[in-house]
């Protein structure tokens, strides 16, 4: 879909309609191609779109009267973005991060200050408590510096504590870093991070899905957190309580079928209760060094001299080999594995579990399997 002023205004108008979110907008654009065609369509055509009932179709049509008002506001916003050396991108732009396109409810519009590069696909999100212990500060700095030195882009939320340390550490190593914020891109929060904000925009990007001048209100941060996890194939949690933003980010990552890693902490510290619980429940992989992350994500292997040697396909019977050849890095349900390998599902499960014990296959929620 061509990203021009008319389409951008149309997308903003749709986002303002109650109960019309990213999922429904994507379906509308898949059906009509662009907002101009949608706005010139009949009630019947709109109501026949998947997940759009007559009530929603009526709300969409009623919103058309506000289009001129939206355009006026957008014109002012684009002028201000230009002054700020920032811009808007949409889901359909080449610059839009590929990893983010694959999550549930991807943001349709993103405000960007800085530059997004193709190499940012190889990234890791690092989040944690706003009040870290000395141990947490050391680990955040250590992991961020070492991952950045391997060429990975560090993603975080520019909050106080672990987030800020992760950004600072990546920059200190000359690496790239991306901050996802829960306010308008012209609202720096916390205010003491003004210098960090500028450094990140010069060596990575600041990202927000919120309109200019949006304040950093509490409801914004859960939405922000799904983007932090969505940008990355994996999220590393360093020190967090049982309840907090880092745990929300971990939950989003699990829902998005992304990897979650956690640094174990002091069992007597409330700031490690969250990370230890994630490990205990098997929702996060315990990590003690960056190689644990790189091997799991299959990233940066050529740059590390201490990585574990990847296990080779040895000592497999013909059925295990048959099952293994159907798998890839994309999750596949056991029923599909069984169909493709010509083995019954119960037998297939046995072979998959054997392969899992050999470290060659990983099981994901919902009886989905991927190569390790």
Please describe what this structure looks like.
By secondary structure, this protein is α/β, with parallel strands linked by helices. Helix content is 44%, strand content 13%. The chain has 17 helices and twelve strands. The chain has helices spanning 5-15, 22-32, 35-39, 43-47, 54-63, 67-83, 98-101, 134-149, 162-172, 194-202, 220-230, 245-255, 273-280, 290-297, 318-324, 334-341, 345-357, and strands at residues 87-90, 109-114, 123-128, 153-156, 177-180, 204-208, 234-238, 259-262, 285-286, 332-333, 361-364, 368-371. A nine-stranded mixed β-sheet has the order 1-2-6-5-4-3-7-8-9, with helices on both faces. β4, α9 and β5 form a beta-alpha-beta unit. α8 packs parallel to α9 (162-172) and α11 packs across α12.
Short characterization:
It is built from 17 helices and twelve strands. The radius of gyration is 23 Å and the shape is globular.
Name its key features:
three-stranded antiparallel β-sheet; alpha/beta; nine-stranded mixed β-sheet; 372 residues
**Quick one: overall form?**
globular
Which range best describes the helical content: under 10%, 10-25%, 25-40%, 40-55%, 55-70% or over 70%?
Answer: 40-55%
Instruction: List low-pLDDT spans.
Output: 301-314
In quaternary terms, these chains amount to single chain
* β-sheet strand percentage: 5-15%
- Average pLDDT number: 91
Structural category is alpha/beta
What is the chain-wise order of helices and strands? HHHHHHEHEEHEHEHEHEHEHEHHEHHEE
Rg, alpha carbons: 23 Å
SS elements, strand count = 12
Summarize the main sheet.
Answer: 9 strands, mixed
Adjacency order of strands in the biggest sheet: 1-2-6-5-4-3-7-8-9
Number of helices: 17
């Amino acid at each position: 879909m061509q990203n021009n002023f008319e389409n951008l205004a149309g997308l903003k108008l749709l986002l303002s309609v109650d109960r019309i979110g990213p999922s429904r907008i994507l379906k509308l654009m898949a059906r009509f191609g662009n907002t101009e065609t949608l706005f010139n369509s009949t009630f019947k055509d709109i109501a026949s779109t998947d997940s759009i009932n007559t009530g929603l179709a009526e709300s969409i049509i009623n919103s058309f009267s506000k289009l001129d008002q939206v355009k006026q506001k957008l014109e002012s916003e684009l002028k201000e973005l230009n002054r700020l050396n920032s811009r808007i991108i949409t889901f359909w732009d080449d610059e839009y991060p590929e990893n983010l396109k694959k999550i549930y409810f991807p943001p349709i519009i993103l405000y960007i200050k800085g530059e997004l590069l193709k190499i940012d696909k190889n990234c890791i999100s690092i989040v944690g408590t706003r009040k870290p212990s000395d141990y947490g500060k050391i680990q955040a700095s250590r992991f961020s510096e070492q991952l950045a030195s391997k060429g990975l882009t560090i993603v975080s939320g520019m909050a106080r504590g672990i987030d800020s340390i992760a950004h600072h550490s990546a920059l200190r190593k000359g690496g790239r870093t991306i901050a996802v914020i829960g306010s308008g891109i012209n609202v720096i929060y916390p205010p003491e991070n003004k210098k960090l904000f500028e450094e990140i925009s010069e060596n990575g990007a600041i990202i927000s899905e919120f309109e200019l001048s949006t304040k950093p209100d509490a409801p914004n941060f859960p939405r922000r957190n799904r983007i932090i996890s969505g940008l990355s194939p994996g999220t590393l949690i360093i020190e967090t309580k049982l309840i907090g933003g880092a745990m929300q980010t971990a939950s989003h990552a699990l829902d998005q079928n992304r990897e979650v890693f956690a640094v174990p902490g002091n069992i007597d510290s409330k700031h490690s209760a969250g990370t230890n619980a994630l490990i205990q429940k098997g929702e996060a992989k315990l990590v003690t060094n960056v190689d644990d992350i790189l091997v799991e994500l299959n990233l940066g292997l050529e740059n590390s001299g201490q990585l574990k040697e990847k296990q080779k396909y040895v000592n497999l019977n013909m059925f295990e080999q048959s099952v293994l050849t159907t798998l890839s890095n994309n999750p596949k349900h056991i029923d599909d594995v069984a169909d493709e390998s010509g083995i019954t599902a119960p037998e297939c499960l046995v072979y998959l579990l054997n392969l899992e014990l050999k470290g060659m296959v990983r099981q994901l929620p919902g009886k989905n399997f991927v190569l390790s």
